[in-house]
Amino acid sequence: MSHIPLRIGMVGYGFMGRAHSNGYSQANHFFNLKYKPVLQAVAARNAEKARAFADQWGYQDIETDWRKLVERKDIDAIDICTPNNLHKEIALAAAANGKMILCEKPLSMNTAEGEEMCQAVEKAGVANTVWYNYRRIPAVTMAKQLIDEGKLGRIFHYRAMFLQDWTISEDVPQGGTATWRLDAQAAGSGVTGDLLAHCIDTAIWLNGSITGVTAMTETFVKERMHAETGKKQEVKIDDAAAFLARFQNGSLATFESTRYARGHKALYTLEINGEKASIKWDLHDLHRLSFFDHRDEGRLRGWKSIHVSDGDQPYMKNWWVPGLQIGYEHSFVHQVVDFLKSLETGQPCSPTFRDALETQKVCDAVLESAKSGAWVGIS
Ligand SMILES: NC(=O)c1ccc[n+]([C@@H]2O[C@H](COP(=O)([O-])OP(=O)(O)OC[C@H]3O[C@@H](n4cnc5c(N)ncnc54)[C@H](O)[C@@H]3O)[C@@H](O)[C@H]2O)c1
User: Ligand 1, from 10, 16, 132, 360: best to mutate by most atoms within 8 Å of Cβ?
Assistant: First the structure.
């Protein structure tokens, strides 16, 4: 089968640069697709490191300035894998050059920037998506199917947490290449944009719009050395955030995220309680979906732990054989697959920039509420 090439230009080669490159490399091995990614060029400021990355992952070429990359005629899609403060500038330039865009999350530093980005891709008419990849873990996708089929009935509660523990030491610096997440100028916010954004995206996808929030945040370590200036500076990101929310469908929610939960490295959990059934999912056991069905015969009622690895479960028929699970990296392969399919069908690949803007609005409302102490509505 001859494929239509989709020539990728990637900006940034860190954690996500590797996750996406793996996704582009694997997609056509396992799924039958009309389009096929071609690793055309990667842009990063350090030529030597960019070349080493290109050689390791199979990119044909490098650029040391992302502006050159977005102007190249031999690139169809720009993949933005940089810290958050660069998303907008790169996306606007890519859209102006008629490139499709796959942008890392959070979409932007704030809602106003995100709106500009939405308008740019809509005006240019270019395909776009944001890498909220947890939607594409088969157990999470199956949760969506069960909810949409009405298996839970009316939803009462949504509960999500994303817990880490890597910034407890006061010696962890802020800023620079390794710790930009602690520098508000590069990250925009702390756990709200970094971790809660994932929880919010999945929640909106599974349970509909969030109409209002009341939140609290805390910065436990007030000053940290800045990796670029070498000086101690005020920490302006939120180290921890928790909020209550109401959904349009009348259900109530609690969300919590922190980098100070000693013992937890990346524990994303969600639970949904409905009238007829409940669902639980946990990133540390990502191939399992817990399901409780009140309609089961009384004596046999209990939480089932479903091993999501069978051919009739989402994405799984394209992988190994029933009983053999897949992992974290496959969520990125699936996002590539769905993006390529969207080019075939002409349908948007959700979450688009416009979809991801909804998450951005909730993040902004969380930060605003934490500051004012007031309940903040979301339009
Ligand atoms: N979807 C997810 O699950 C997930 C997970 C981690 C990170 N992210 C998001 O991905 C983005 C990148 O995060 P990461 O963990 O890969 O960070 P990282 O620090 O590992 O990599 C960032 C890359 O951007 C490059 N970069 C920085 N400034 C640049 C510039 N001016 N020009 C070109 N390249 C530049 C760096 O050299 C580095 O290669 C962030 O927006 C983050 O929120 C998403």
Answer: 16
